[in-house]
Amino acid sequence: MDEEIKWLSKRLHPRISWSFTVRFKPHESKNRGVWGVALVKNISVGGCYFYSNIPYKAGQILDLEIKFPALMEPMRFVGEVKRCDYDQDRGGDIYGLGIHFLEMDESKKDNFIKTVEFFLRKQSKVK
User: Looking at residue 126, what is its pLDDT?
Assistant: First the structure.
């Protein structure tokens, strides 16, 4: 069975393919000013996938901030790296990171879920 198909079957939540900006760094890093920046390839209420020029090990915990159009401020998450794929097709050192959300901004959680549901409906109309 193809690896991508196996991984898709493990997903608990439907994902949307929409580009949101994500900032990320190792959880509670002592160097507070160094954030990586990327575009989310896909996202669900349970996790996301994006590309990084830094490889992270499965199990590593990251702080994430994702900017959504419905929210004035970025939403903060703590996520666990579930997989880190080297992507030769993108050239250079590019890694695809599969992230499982462990914690999220509770005050913005309802707006986040509504945003994902909105984009899921929009995405299903496009297909």
Answer: 60
Q: Are 52 and 70 in contact (CB under 8 A)?
A: no
- What is the helix (H) or strand (E) element at residue 123, kind and residue range? helix 109-126
How many H-runs (helices) and E-runs (strands) does the chain carry? 2, 6
> Which residue bears the tokens 């890093």?
29
The span from the CA of 50 to the CA of 43, in Å, is: 9
Read off the pLDDT of residues 25-51 as tens digits, 9 standing for 90 and up. Answer: 999 766 666 899 999 999 999 999 999
Bridge partners of residue 79, in order along the sequence:
62, 101
The model's pTM is: 0.81
Spacing of C-alpha 53 from chain mean position: 15
pLDDT at 122: 81
Residue 63's closest CA among 114, 29, 17?
29
